[in-house]
Amino acid sequence: MKPSGDLQLEQTPAVEADPRYTWVEWDESSPPKLAELVSKFKPLDKDAGHAAACWLKTEAQSDLFTVTHLLTSEARLEGFITCRVSEATLTWSGVESLGVSREESRKTVPAYLLCWCAKHRETSMDGEELILNAIRLGKEVRRYGCAVLALDPHDDVTAEKVWQRKYGFRLGAKPTDSDRHPRLWTPLSTD
After folding, report:
1. Window from 44-58, 92-106, 137-151 with minimum mean pLDDT
2. b vs e for 171-189, b when ≥16 Cβ sit within 10 Å of the residue's Cβ?
3. CA 114 to CA 184: how far, in whole Å?
4. Terminus of the chain with fewer CB atoms < 10 Å: N or C?
5. Integer Cα distance of 15 and 62 in angstroms
6. pLDDT range class, residue 104, cuts 50, 70, 90
7. Residue 126 buriedness (CB in 10 A; 0-12 / 13-18 / 19+)
């Protein structure tokens, strides 16, 4: 996969095809075995990883507005993503890149928001598998109006080096009411 292009689910085999891994939802009705895997989860040793792991262990099961998907193996929790339906404010050029003119649209579009994404520090799995699953899930909700997969980067360095350079996410419009980083996005188009 080219590092600077848009992620395309069709370009990389789905994780489900790899018998070493299984995707499962993490919620209040999950079996105790999953709770054990979650409690032993060790993220990459970065601020964003520690924040994601803390949220997973303390809040994920009770958050009514998100869905958390765990990527498990026999040995451990390999990684996880948490998503919800939201919105993203794009630049006008971003809106036009979706095939909509300025006259018939607005800058804020429905989005499938990747809230949390982290992998185990010892996993051999590439983090791209987590993102590809978020795109797959986003494409499932696209029929309900979600146009993009969006995320709020943990910091400016991660935004640029990981999400923009490595995975091809684009900058949304700069928020006017705060000094946070613009929401990043990638299209969920099926073409």
Report:
1. 92-106
2. bbbeeeeeeebbbbbbbbe
3. 10
4. C
5. 26
6. low
7. middle
